[in-house]
Amino acid sequence: MTGKPTLATTWLDGCSGCHMSFVDLDERLLELAEKVDLVYSPLVDHKDYPDWVDICLVEGAVSSEDDLAKILKLRAHTGTLVSFGDCAVTANVPGMRNPIGPTALLERAYLENATLNQRIPLDVVPALLPMARPVNRVVEVDVYLPGCPPSADLIYRVLTDLIEGRTPDTTGARFGR
Ligand code: SF4
Question: Any residues with CB less than 8 A from the CB of 27 and at least 6 apart, and which?
Answer without folding.
Answer: none
